[in-house]
Amino acid sequence: ATAAIPSFDIQATRGDAEFRGTASLRVSRTNRGVRIWGSVRGSQTGVCARCLAPATVALAVDLDDEAVDERHVDDAESLRIGAGNSVDVGRLAIEALDLARHLVLRCDPPCPERCGSCGAAHATEACPNSEIDPRLAGLAALLPVEGDDGAEIG
Fold first, then answer.
1. What is the radius of gyration, based on Cα positions, of the chain?
2. At 59, phi and psi to the nearest 5?
3. What is the mean predicted confidence (pLDDT) over 41-53?
4. Among 28, 22, 17, 18, which Cα is nearest to 6's?
5. Predicted pLDDT at 151
C-alpha cells in the first residue's frame, strides 16, 4: 500500500546558497523499512560568479530512497528510521536539492563580461584604462608594432 505525503515547502541555507522548494512525495512499506519517492522542485539563490549580482536558478530532482529499520542496516550511509518510527523527509528533500545544486551560478540572461583591469562591465580589450602598468613598461618594447605582419623572430 502506498500513501501520499502532503506537499510541503522547504527552505535551507547551505554555505553561500539558499534553497527553496516544494516536495511532492509518496511512501510505501517494504520488507526492510519504507520507500520514499517523488519529486522536489525549487530554486537555488546565490551570487553570479561573473558579476557578483544576485542569481537564481531552477532545480528539479527525482527522489527515490529507502529508510531501513536499524536491524536491516547494511552500511553507515543507509537512511535509517529514527526514534518513534519517523523519517525526516524535509531533510531528505533539502539534501536532494543540495546534490543537484549549481556549483557556479551565472546570471540568466548572461551578464556582461567584467574587465580584468578595472572591474567594470565591459571586455578587457575594450577598457578605456588601457595604460600599461609602469612596473611592466620595460616589457612594452617587446610588444609588436601596430601593423606588424608577425614574421618569425631569428
1. 27
2. -130, 145
3. 90
4. 22
5. 60
Contact 76, 57 (CB under 8 A): no
Cβ atoms of residues 27 and 57 within 8 Å: no
Cis status of the peptide bond prior to 109, with omega within 30 of 0:
yes
What are the beta bridge partners of residue 117?
A: none
Return the bridge partners of 81, or none: none
Whether residue 38 contacts residue 26, with contact meaning beta carbons closer than 8 Å, is answered with: yes
Residue 55 CB contacts under 8 Å (≥ 6 apart), including other chains:
45, 46, 47, 48, 105, 106, 107, 108
Which set of grid coordinates corresponds to residue 83? 526514534
Rounded CA gap, 111 and 123, in Å? 12
